[in-house]
Amino acid sequence: MALTLRRAINGRYWEGVLGTVLPLALSLFSFTSPSFAQADQPQGPLAELLREAGQNNPRIQAARHDWEAAQKVPTQVATPPDPQAIVQQFSVGSPRPFAGYTNSDFAYIGFGFSQDLPYPGKLRLRGQIAKKDADVLQQRVETVEREVFAGLETAYFQLAYLAEKGRIFASDKDLLQQIEQSAEARYRSGMGTQQEVLQAQLEQTKLLRDITTNDLEIDKLQATLKQLLNRSQSSADVAPAALSERPLAYTYEQLLDVAKADNPRLAGMQKVVERQQLQVDLAKRDFYPDFNVQYMWQRTDPTQFRAYYLLTFGARIPIYRKRRQEPELEQARAGQSRAQSEYDSASQQLAYDLRRQFAEASRLADLLKIYRDGLEPQARAELQAGMAAYQSNRQDFQALLASFLDVLKLDQEYWQILAEREMALAQIEQATGVSLR
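RE: above sequence
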């Protein structure tokens, strides 16, 4: 259940000296502060956006099509070469086809076929290598999905922060208008100075600048979200839900174990290591010969001779081992070592990234508690004390305004830290596949 902290400024601090002017501002000082408490907010809008991105994002679709295409390769490369049909004609005395067939006992016509036979095991290894390539692309699909989802969540949480920031600006704008009116009333009554009025007007102008800048950032994030969702840029804007602090119920070691077992990028690189081992095995098989079988039926003058049947068995001998097979094997082994090194590097990088994101999420949670339990109440107490001092003419207007702006600044900083923590959790989800919602 969300706990709402209300910033109630006591009206009695303004009575007496300020007469009937500042009680009008009192109604706006008693505004409701944005909630600093943890709450279980529904994640429906974000979940719907993630499903939409999974179905429509072009990067994800392209990765899936690559995987689907790669699945068709193993049977192709594991299938023996197509047989070759052969027609032979042998003539005597003339280069014209079929000339002299009836004039010479040596003329004949023949039909047959030829079949290449790779050394046993080569086709199987080629099919396994292609299967590993498809497995790598399958892991690539999930890697792209997680990257897109993490980018979507990051933009979504930034948008939610800016939306909350806009609500703070809206309440700030109304309050500054009341403060300006109060400063003008004090100036006309001789109790204030023109500097107070000018300071209030300057703060209003700064606020307009901040509102415009905030709206610009919102427009940029809306464009980013629509791109990730493959929506038209003229479609309706995304409406984010209110930010809430999610608990992190896992230790770093637990998350690391899950990530090493389930991270698609790491799994894909492991498939590459296995593929390179198969490539080494195939390179070793290339030291052995491939074969060819040919069968022919030949016919001369059918009135005088019987038909001939010819079976031929051939082998392609790898005699250039020093120049072809041995360099090929060395190349495959080097590729295997490179793939293993890349896997080890990616494993270390995953552990580093996860540790950094986990530490950030944990420390930001501590920082949020400091804001909720320390900074925000202390700033609010300072503002109340400043009002009392301003009532008795012991504090000037600028100091009071600075105290109030400190409170509003802490509000904005809290929501920004909360958004940053949610983005860190999104990165953890990308690395581990664990849903923290």
